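This section describes the prediction task in plain terms. A model, or a person checking by hand, is given the sequence of a single protein chain and must write out its three-dimensional structure as a string of tokens. No templates, partner chains or ligands are provided. The sample shown here is typical of the held-out split.
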Amino acid sequence: MKILFACLFVLFVTMSGFAETPVNVIMKGEATNSKGKLVYTESHTYKKLSSGEITEIQTKYHNAEGKLIAEVSADFTKDAFIPDTVFIDHRFSEKQELTYDKDSKMVTMKLTDKNGKVKTNTIARTDDMVSGSGFHNYILKHYDAKKSDIKFIVLPKLDYYSFFFQKEPSETTGQRKFVLKISSWVLRALVKEIVVEYRDADHVLMSFEGLTNIESDSHDSQILKIKLSYP
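The expected answer:
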């Protein structure tokens, strides 16, 4: 009887772990340029596990005047680091899509422009490969690592690049800084590093600085600083 009870208890605990219900979180962000001028705001609604891992996220971007300019949705059901993603930029009538096939371990990327012209590319998923907000989940998994190598998928380029991120001292007490740099020393001079800071208490993102996924109104890349808050 004791053995049966013990087995049932273990089964209950195991099933409880698999049945964890993600909690809903709202996060706001303000993106500013080097002069401190507001460029756009972002509103994130996402679901996360007790570990902090994101399972689903929807984000809307509004310009400084409050007009919706872009939105993205990501689903981490298939992979914690490479979510199925749909990004739409309403200013340019462009769509970016990423789909991961768990069986073949292939990642398919698709770009559709305002004229309906489509570009695609398919790559094999490799170890330490991440895409978009999957970088957050990867950071959490390697939160205490001093350095880690990753292969970052850049959806607009329909390809991936080798990066590494390393932990550096934060100027803010109670926060941890991670710096993402491209591995190639030749490209490093052209691609500015990305800096993110997390709050140690609950491992939530507090700030981002670097190249953003939102281009300027003139279709140029832009380097901004984004401060996050949790209303």
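For orientation: The two ends are 51 Å apart (CA to CA).
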